[in-house]
Amino acid sequence: MANTKVGSTKKQSRLTRRKFLRTALAVPPAIALAACSAPAPATTPPQATAAIQPTSVPPPAPALAPTQAPTQPPPTEPAPTQAAQVLPPTPACTDDDDVTLAQTEGPFYTPNSPERTSLLEPGMAGTKMLLTGHVLSTDCRLIAGALVDFWHADDNGVYDNVGYQLRGHQFTDDAGQYSLETIVPGLYPGRTRHFHVKVQAANQPILTTQLYFPGEPRNDTDSIFQPDLLMSAQDIDEGQQAAFDFVLAIS
């Protein structure tokens, strides 16, 4: 009997261990591991560096430079005024200078034009122009009281052969200077842009010639054109400004 009990006890003991093993194997591995290991503290996954910017302390403000007494700006040269823009003589006069070239009078000269320094009239079409210059001798003496007689075509290239539109004469002042207000002449058929002029010192021969504009396309095809008779010209606010000095042979 004693042996039977002992064997029964051992059998029950073995059955109990089998049951335990079966029970243990039936438990999911996650639970088993959780039961066998101590709970680990929760960790925060690392954040991307660009996502969270470290708090920065603004840099201290730079120290202010000591206040300096204001200094005067360097003097600047005044801009040239319109009156100061004096065009150089054309041609420049030197001792024994050549006389201004003579040219044909053309068919449209009218004598006895009015004495005036402005040929402008109310309502006249065209670009305004100021022409200035001197009358000199070949030894560069300024000639006062010289006659300067101008005529030219209108804005459409037409000459007034009935009246005295765009025709007029004047006399040089004590400094041998003349000044003419007029318009830029239009293009006469077959010719480049030009002025007609007669110049005469007192009791001396008359010089008849023409003046030309620089940069005109027809200068290259006009058979009468002479580069020595080119004016110095430039654009100004009111239109154009030009200059030419006449050199006369004085006996």
Report on the architecture of this protein.
This protein is an alpha+beta fold and 251 residues long. It has a domain at 89-248: Protocatechuate 3,4-Dioxygenase, subunit A (Sandwich), CATH 2.60.130.10. Helices cover 13% and strands 21% of the residues. The protein is built from two helices and nine strands; from the N terminus they run ααβββββββββ. Strands 1, 4, 7, 8 and 9 form a five-stranded mixed beta sheet that branches. A four-stranded antiparallel beta sheet has the order 3-2-5-6, with no helix packed on it. The longest helix has 25 residues, at 2-26. The protein is globular. The termini are far apart. The relative contact order is 0.17. Residues 1-15, 17-59, 61-70 and 77-84 have low confidence and may be disordered.
Short description:
Helices cover 13% and strands 21% of the residues. With 251 residues, it is an alpha+beta fold.
- The number of strands is 9
Give the termini distance in whole angstroms: 179 Å
Q: What helical percentage do the residues reach?
A: 10-25%
Could you give a short account of the major beta sheet? 5 strands, mixed
Based on the coordinates given, report the CATH architecture of the domain at 89-248.
Answer: Sandwich
CATH superfamily placement of the domain at 89-248:
Aromatic compound dioxygenase
Portion in strands: 15-25%
Shape: globular
> If you compute it from the alpha carbons, what radius of gyration comes out, rounded to the nearest whole angstrom?
54 Å
Structural class: alpha+beta
Number of H- or I-type helical stretches: 2
- What is the chain-wise order of helices and strands? HHEEEEEEEEE
Low-confidence stretches: 1-15, 17-59, 61-70, 77-84
The mean pLDDT is 77
- In CATH, the topology of the domain at 89-248 is named Protocatechuate 3,4-Dioxygenase, subunit A
CATH class of the domain at 89-248: Mainly Beta
